[in-house]
Protein: Glyoxylate/succinic semialdehyde reductase 2, chloroplastic
Amino acid sequence: MAAAFLLCPRLALPLRRGSRLLVSCSASASSSDAAGGVGFQGKVGFLGLGIMGAPMASNLIKAGYDVTVWNRTESKCDPLLSLGAKFESSPAGVASSCDVTFAMLADPESAAEVACGTNGAAEGMAPGKGYVDVSTVDDATSKLIGKHITRTGASFLEAPVSGSKKPAEDGLLIFLTAGDESLYKRVAPLLDVMGKSRFYLGDVGNGATMKLVVNMVMGSMMVSFAEGLLLSEKVGLDPNTVVEVISQGAINAPMFSLKGPSMVKAAYPTAFPLKHQQKDLRLALALAESVSQSIPTAAAANELYKVAKSLGLADHDFSAVIEALKAKVQSSQQ
Ligand SMILES: NC(=O)C1=CN([C@@H]2O[C@H](COP(=O)(O)OP(=O)(O)OC[C@H]3O[C@@H](n4cnc5c(N)ncnc54)[C@H](OP(=O)(O)O)[C@@H]3O)[C@@H](O)[C@H]2O)C=CC1
Ligand SMILES: O=CC(=O)O
Structure:
């Protein structure tokens, strides 16, 4: 099959355009889209101002967009209001006062509740409006949300992100979008403010599953890294040197260099909460089960994240999973 390649300048990577999935990549963080169109015209809503939502909304405000926010815990809106955002007291209020509304919620339950529940975003939707869910959820939840939104005549795009707190602050996220392609094109200038690249993956569900596959790999990688750090200490090596050696070789990953030094000091400042990584592994396991695929490494990693949660580490960074390994070592020595 002949494949077309797109060049993504900010990543300096060739991207393959296959016959089924249109993969596109925008290099620009300005308000003009990749096709050379103009910036987004209209009001932007943002629901969910946690670790990710707050900096994403903040970047939209700083880029000059007219942004209206809502968050379950209202006080988290204050820093955004100081930057010039408007406030609405419900997701429905945001959706009805905005042309396009983004949602960045914790998990499938909260994403569905905020979109489809009482006073949810769907109640404020109408033809011509758009809803972009950037939360990490499973494909069934995304399809459910899409159904509630589109039956109002509005358009739906799922757009989970790869990249953590710092990339969100720096506008360097990677968007994994799927759903209404004209909404994708319409919001591209907004995605380009918040991210460094964007992929359009076809039907609703493909973005969600892509995100789960990526985070399944990440969760297992972190456990493997934690095992290596602990083993190195046990055999008398300096784990800081392990971090340095890994950073220079073929298995180098920014995640190891970023998290390694603090893991060695048993410090876990939260960028990606451990409870969300465990949620993603749980959802990836269900996804694998749905197609009878065995993912034993991810299954074992998931068990460790569950142990870490039981140790009270749910709200720490996911690198705190190393504490679950330490606890296992201690209990085996007793
Ligand atoms: N942090 C990261 O590095 C990344 C996270 N993600 C994904 O992005 C999503 C958000 O992550 P993050 O910002 O870190 O998470 P946070 O836990 O910091 O924020 C979660 C948000 O969801 C809201 N929320 C939770 N439950 C409910 C509910 N029942 N009803 C209404 N609102 C609710 C919270 O509101 P309140 O403030 O009231 O608690 C908050 O706004 C998750 O799906 C995560 O997996 C994706 C990429 C990176
Ligand atoms: O979902 C987490 C991330 O870092 O991406």
Observations:
- The pocket of NDP (ligand 1) is lined by residues 48-53, 71-73, 76, 104-107, 110, 113-114, 135-136, 161, 164-165, 271-273, 276 (CB under 6 Å).
- Confidence is low (pLDDT under 50) at residues 1-23, 25-37.
- The two ends are 59 Å apart (CA to CA).
- The CA atoms of residues 51 and 165 lie 6 Å apart.
